[in-house]
Specification:
The protein is built from ten helices and six strands; from the N terminus they run H-H-E-E-H-H-H-H-H-E-E-H-H-H-E-E. It has about 350 residues and is mainly α. The chain has one domain: Arp2/3 complex 21 kDa subunit ARPC3. The protein has a two-stranded antiparallel ribbon with strand order 1-2. It has a two-stranded antiparallel sheet with strand order 3-4. Strands 5-6 form a two-stranded antiparallel sheet. A hairpin with a 4-residue loop joins strand 5 and strand 6. Helix 3 crosses helix 5, helix 4 packs antiparallel against helix 5 and helix 7 runs antiparallel to helix 9. The longest helix has about 35 residues.
Length: about 350
């Protein structure tokens, strides 16, 4: 659903740019609370994994394909604020290096694919987790539903933006029907990928899944023959992971998986246009589409310039993309995590003078 330049007019693009910048600023502050010793090492990896899986277009209807948006997955794994940053990093790398998603439309894409998907998915996910049984399976089910709904929600958001600032005169009802209809189908694929990934992580390291925290049951005491909640034992506290447990094995597994998906499996992805591209071509939304400012990038269209073999060119571009994204994402989240540490540095008191130092 990467919106290219020319679909949305300049004033609307500028406003969404301001909205996106504000959301990223808020997310940077919110991520300080989310990026603890468990989520911080994984946030950059989540961004790289989303980049890799977005290269795997899957067929959803005749002549149409879809791909992961990733907002739901990121929010559930590392938290909603960090999730917005993860998807934003991916969109920035795609726009600059691979000419995927217009540069003037970056605000539109971040608003649509990072903010809307993450907010809608995480709000629905938290609501479902509260009413479902407190089990790991419930987290997986809630992940599926949240991801499924987040995709047509993003399609609806694009439709509203097009209604406000579209550059072609197309009946909004036709756009809405086409966009939401095809993206409901794409949402099924998004839901399956999200649920499988969350389920796989929660099966081996539930302590690393942000959305699974608080599944521990309250400590019970027997009083006069009845079991009651022990005082001072809130059910929101996750079971602590052993200090010796390392994130390294999961991190390496996730990185290798991302590299294989982007470097090898992506060659077998569907070549059909994705949902937005198909609707734009069918309805005439793309009549005023503009060439990407970085169309001559050495990595444009997910291929390496001057490499004739399509398999090698695409695979190498995917590997480069995963590497750049994990480095850029990790740098951002490391800086945010370090800022949290600076903000949280405790003050000490000089006992001889009673002053804080």
């Amino acid at each position: 659903m990467h919106v290219p330049d020319g679909f949305i007019n300049a004033p609307t693009s500028a406003v969404t740019g301001v909205v996106a910048a504000g959301a990223v600023a808020v997310s940077l502050r919110g991520a300080r609370r989310e990026l603890d010793e468990r989520t911080a090492p994984l946030a950059g990896l989540v961004a790289a994994f989303i980049f890799a899986v977005q290269m795997l277009n899957f067929p959803v209807a005749a002549g149409t394909s879809g791909h992961l948006l990733g907002g739901a997955l990121a929010a559930i794994l590392v938290g909603p604020y960090t999730g917005v940053l993860c998807v934003s990093v991916v969109l920035l790398m795609q726009g600059i290096l691979f000419a995927d998603g217009g540069l003037t439309a970056l605000g539109v894409n971040i608003t649509d694919m990072a903010i809307v998907t993450t907010v809608v998915a995480y709000a629905l996910f938290r609501g479902l987790v509260k009413v479902l049984p407190r089990t790991r399976r419930s987290v997986t089910v809630a992940s599926f539903v949240a991801a499924l709904v987040s995709v047509p929600a993003a399609a609806l958001a694009f439709t509203l933006l097009y209604w406000i600032g579209g550059t072609t005169d197309i009946a909004i009802g036709k756009v809405a029907t086409a966009m939401i209809g095809v993206h409901v189908l794409i949402g099924i694929g998004e839901a399956a990928i999200t649920a499988l990934t969350v389920g796989a992580v929660i099966a081996v390291r539930p302590d690393l899944v942000y959305g699974a925290r608080g599944l521990g049951q309250r400590l019970k005491l027997r009083v006069n023959g009845e079991l009651v909640d022990a005082p001072g034992t809130p059910d929101t506290a996750p079971a602590p992971a052993p200090a010796a447990r390392s994130h390294r094995k999961l991190w390496i597994t996730g990185l290798v998986t991302s590299l294989v998906l982007a470097g090898f499996v992506s060659f077998y992805a569907s070549a059909n246009p994705d949902g937005l591209e198909k609707v734009a071509a069918d309805k005439g939304i793309d009549r005023k589409a503009e060439e990407h400012a970085n169309a001559d990038s050495p990595l444009a269209d997910y291929g390496v310039e001057d490499i004739a073999n399509a398999r090698v060119s695409g695979g190498l571009a995917g590997v480069i993309g995963v590497g750049v994204t994990v480095v850029a994402g990790s740098a951002v989240f490391w800086a945010v995590r370090r800022r949290r540490g600076d903000d949280a540095s405790p003050t000490s008191t000089d006992t001889s003078t009673g002053t804080k130092v």
